[in-house]
Amino acid sequence: MTHKILIINGDGIGPEIIAEAHKVLAVVNEKHQLGLEFDHALLGGEAIDATGKPFPDETLAKSKEADAILFGAVGGPKWDKIDSAIRPEKGLLAIRSNLGLFANLRPAILYPQLADASSLKPEVVSGLDILIVRELTGGIYFGQPRGIRTLENGEREGFNTYVYRESEINRIGKVAFDMAMKRGKKVCSVDKSNVLEVTELWRERMEEVANDYPEAELSHMYVDNAAMQLVREPKQFDVIVTGNMFGDILSDQASMLTGSIGMLPSASLDESGKGLYEPCHGSAPDIAGQNKANPLATILSAAMMLRYSLNLGEVADEIEQAVSLVLDEGYRTVDILTDGCREVGTLEMGDLVAGQLK
Ligand code: NAD
């Protein structure tokens, strides 16, 4: 059996971090005869330079054919002044919408070795392991009508529409419960059902979806309370499921509990489980080409790819374990460097993880 992996470097530090994740995948591919086959495509600034478009047709065709996509990041000052319709970031939005990637998974995991890097007390965050499941293609960011209109008295008003269909709520709920069943079997659904009817329906549908998962526990929390609980006692959560806007905000908040953006992977999945896997950070043009970028978020994204799109959870566990062992040995890229640790570059960090796996 073969698995087609499409690799997209992107811009800035993209090629450097992807090279290390590719290195790690090549090792597990060889070791376990996984049948991974790699292809490459362009997106973002590199695609604009080569083809004039941030999301070339060839990339669309290859991404439809692939079983999973591993992606670095796009953007940079070189393309900041070009027409906003063809900016690098448009390429990323286009690939997400063309592939119907409606489920965004963002784990916030704090390796105990990095507890000092968080802004919260080590005992509050050490061992933190939350998965935020955010609906990515609906809700108030996409609802119609929307716009800014002028009223009869000449005053202008801005308006958006917060809308979710039952089918959209059901499918994201199912993803959250499926994920929870592979973890701590707890789902906390975050809404604002005391004020917003759309989330009243959200809450009702989540109850319905939960009936299909008798072993899992469902709780509900208003979004304002969830924001507070995330900093008060974040370890109470296992899987959080929420809509597009609340998820946008809460996932950024949760990611900062872990202290470093260079450690955080993410996945965006379609209905069949096919996905795009990428680090949460951007293309970091300030450190591009200097062998300074932390490749671990991308390596951990590759592990998520094996687990969620290719059903190779044990190999994903092995990669995550290798990352943990490298951190145990005190190796750190500069973004996670603390006293008494040994600084290494992007390339060396990739070699160390690959070395553990061999
Ligand atoms: P950024 O995440 O690229 O960088 C923020 C800070 O974090 C920088 O100081 C950077 O050096 C550091 N950083 C980021 N990743 C790191 C890593 N792996 N190791 C060590 N340090 C790391 O965000 P930004 O500076 O706001 O954006 C830079 C460019 O990236 C912009 O063009 C933006 O549009 C783009 N961007 C792309 C994505 C994406 O492709 N998904 C996401 C966010 C931003």
Kindly report the average pLDDT value.
95
Largest sheet: 10 strands, mixed
CATH domain topology of the largest domain: Isopropylmalate Dehydrogenase
Bound molecules: nicotinamide-adenine-dinucleotide
Q: How many strands? A: 14
Give the C-alpha Rg.
21 Å
Q: Beta-sheet strand percentage? A: 15-25%
**Cα-to-Cα separation, first versus last residue:** 23 Å
CATH architecture of the largest domain: 3-Layer(aba) Sandwich
Name the CATH homologous superfamily of the largest domain. Isopropylmalate Dehydrogenase
**So what's the CATH class of the largest domain?**
Alpha Beta
The portion of residues assigned to helices is 40-55%
Supply the number of structural domains.
Answer: 2
* C-alpha geometry: globular
Structural classification: alpha/beta
Order of strands, widest sheet: 2-1-3-12-11-4-5-10-8-9
- Low-confidence residue ranges: none
Distinct helical segment count: 12
Order of helices and strands: EHEHHEHEHEEEHEHEHEHEEHHEEH
Structural description of this entry:
The structure is a single chain. The chain is α/β, with parallel strands linked by helices and about 350 residues long. It folds into two domains: about 1-100 and about 265-358, Isopropylmalate Dehydrogenase; about 120-260, Isopropylmalate Dehydrogenase (3-Layer(aba) Sandwich). The protein contains twelve helices and 14 strands. The strands form three sheets. It has a ten-stranded mixed sheet with strand order 2-1-3-12-11-4-5-10-8-9, sandwiched between helices. The chain has a two-stranded antiparallel ribbon with strand order 6-7. Strand 8 (about 185-190), helix 7 (about 195-210) and strand 9 form a beta-alpha-beta unit. Helix 1 (about 15-30) crosses helix 10 (about 295-310), helix 6 packs across helix 7 and helix 10 runs antiparallel to helix 11 (about 315-330). The two termini are about 25 Å apart. The mean pLDDT is about 95. Bound molecules: nicotinamide-adenine-dinucleotide (NAD).
